[in-house]
Write a structure and sequence with these properties.
Layout lengths: L8 H18 L22 E3 L4 E2 L4 E3 L11 E7 L6 E2 L13 E7 L3 E9 L5 E8 L6 E3 L5 E8 L2 E5 L2 H8 L35 H6 L3 E2 L4 H4 L9 H13 L28 H4 L5 E6 L2 E3 L10 H7 L17 H14 L4 H8 L2
Parallel strand pairs: 5-12
Antiparallel strand pairs: 1-2, 3-4, 4-6, 6-7, 7-8, 8-9, 10-11, 13-14
C-alpha cells in the first residue's frame, strides 16, 4: 500500500472538474470500442524502432520539432512520424491537413529518463487509435498502459508527479478541433521559426520542416504562397507573435471554432487562412469571463495582466483554476512572463479598441 498522503479536498474536486471537462470534450465524438486494447502490447512492436535495445529508429520514420511546443511540466520531448510508403499528406487546406491511412505518430516524454511514449495511428475506417506506453525505470521495456492512464508515473518537482493520460484524455485533446494531429502543421513546421517561442526547442539534425516535406514529395497540395513566404504569426511585435504562438500551441486544441467548446466564443488558435485581427485578441480583449475571481472579470484587460483571467489561469497550478486543466501540475514561468508582458505592454495601446468592444 502506498504511503503517499491522500489528495487534498481541493485537489480531489479539481480532478473531478477536469474529469467533467474531459467527458464534455470526449462526448463530441460518437462512442466506439476502447481502442487501447487493440494496440500492440509493447512500444517495440508499433513500428518506431528497427531495434529497440539499441534505440535504432526504423528507416522511413521522420523526426520533427514544432516551433510552439505544448509544455508538459518541463518534459523533454522527441517526436516521430511515419507515412505509408508512396503516400503523402494532402495540404490543400492549409489549416487542416489530411493524413493517409496508416500514418503513425509518436511522442516521447523524458524527465531525466524516458517515462512515456504516446502513439497515434490512422485506421482504415478514418478514426485514430490512441495508446500510451509506460517505460520501465531501467529503460528495458515500454509496455502499453491501462486505458485509464497511470497517475504519478514519475516525480517531476517537489511533491508533483507526471501522469500518463487515459484514453478519454487523449480523445479530449486530439478530437476537439479540426485535426486530431497536433504540432504537425504548416505553422508549426514553418521554416520561419519564431526566436522568442516560449520553451522553443532547436531543431535536431534530420528534423523535417515544411520545405523538406514538400521537396520529398511527402506533402502535396500546399499553396505556393506558403513556400514563397513561410507561414508565420503576424504579430504587431515580436512579443505578440510569441504570445499568440504559445496560445496556439498550448490552448487552441480546445479553444477554437470547430470543437465542442466553440460555444464559449473563446478562440486561441491562429489559423493561417484567417484574415483580420487574431481571434485570440478579438475573443479575449474586454470580453467578460465566465470564470470570475475578485478583481478579475475580463478575459483580458488591456495593460493589466493582474486583472486578466487569461493570465491568472495560465499562472495557476491548482487543479480548479489552472489552464490547461490537465496535462500539467506545474506552472510554466516562461509562459507566465510572456503573457503578462504581452497584456501589459502590447495590448495597452488597445484601450480604445477595448472601449469600443465594451460599448457594443
Amino acid at each position: 500500500m502506498s504511503n503517499r498522503p491522500l489528495p487534498s479536498p481541493e485537489t480531489r474536486s479539481g480532478r473531478a472538474i477536469a474529469a467533467v471537462l474531459v467527458g464534455l470534450l470526449a462526448g463530441c465524438a460518437p462512442p466506439r470500442p476502447d481502442q487501447a486494447v487493440t494496440a500492440p502490447a509493447r512500444l517495440a512492436d508499433t513500428g518506431l524502432y528497427a531495434d529497440f535495445a539499441s534505440r535504432t529508429i526504423q528507416a522511413g520514420v521522420l523526426t520533427f520539432t514544432p516551433q510552439y511546443p505544448l509544455w508538459t511540466d518541463g518534459a523533454v520531448k522527441r517526436r516521430y512520424i511515419a507515412l505509408p510508403p508512396g503516400l503523402s499528406i494532402d495540404a490543400s487546406a492549409v489549416d487542416d491537413w489530411q493524413f493517409p491511412v496508416g500514418t503513425k505518430i509518436w511522442k516521447q516524454f523524458d524527465f531525466g529518463r524516458p517515462v512515456e511514449t504516446r502513439f497515434m495511428e490512422l485506421l482504415a475506417d478514418g478514426t485514430w487509435r490512441y495508446a500510451t506506453y509506460l517505460w520501465a525505470v531501467d529503460g528495458a521495456t515500454a509496455e502499453l498502459a491501462s486505458d485509464g492512464g497511470v497517475r504519478d508515473a514519475c516525480r517531476t518537482r517537489g511533491d508533483r508527479h507526471h501522469d500518463l493520460p487515459s484514453l478519454a484524455d487523449c480523445r479530449a485533446c486530439h478530437e476537439a478541433g479540426r485535426s486530431p494531429v497536433l504540432g504537425f502543421s504548416a505553422l508549426q513546421l514553418s521554416d520561419d521559426v519564431d526566436p522568442l517561442a516560449p520553451n522553443g526547442e532547436p531543431r535536431r539534425p534530420g528534423d523535417v520542416g515544411l520545405r523538406a516535406l514538400v521537396d520529398r514529395g511527402l506533402l502535396t497540395g500546399l499553396a505556393a504562397e506558403w513556400l514563397r513566404q513561410p507561414p508565420r504569426i503576424d504579430g504587431r511585435s515580436a512579443v505578440e507573435r510569441a504570445a499568440l504562438g504559445y496560445l496556439h500551441g498550448n490552448c487552441a486544441n480546445c479553444h477554437n471554432d470547430a470543437g465542442p467548446l466553440r460555444r464559449l466564443g473563446l478562440r486561441l488558435d491562429f489559423p493561417l487562412s484567417h484574415r483580420g485581427p487574431a481571434p485570440a485578441i478579438v475573443t479575449t480583449l474586454a470580453v467578460a469571463s465566465r470564470f470570475e475571481r475578485p478583481g478579475n472579470r475580463l478575459r483580458v484587460a488591456a495593460g493589466a495582466p493582474e486583472h486578466s483571467v487569461l493570465a491568472l489561469r495560465i499562472a495557476a497550478d491548482d487543479p480548479i483554476t489552472q489552464m490547461p486543466p490537465f496535462g500539467r501540475h506545474l506552472t510554466d514561468p516562461v509562459a507566465v512572463q510572456l503573457i503578462e508582458r504581452w497584456i501589459r505592454d502590447d495590448l495597452d495601446g488597445d484601450r480604445r479598441l477595448e472601449t469600443n468592444l465594451t460599448n457594443k
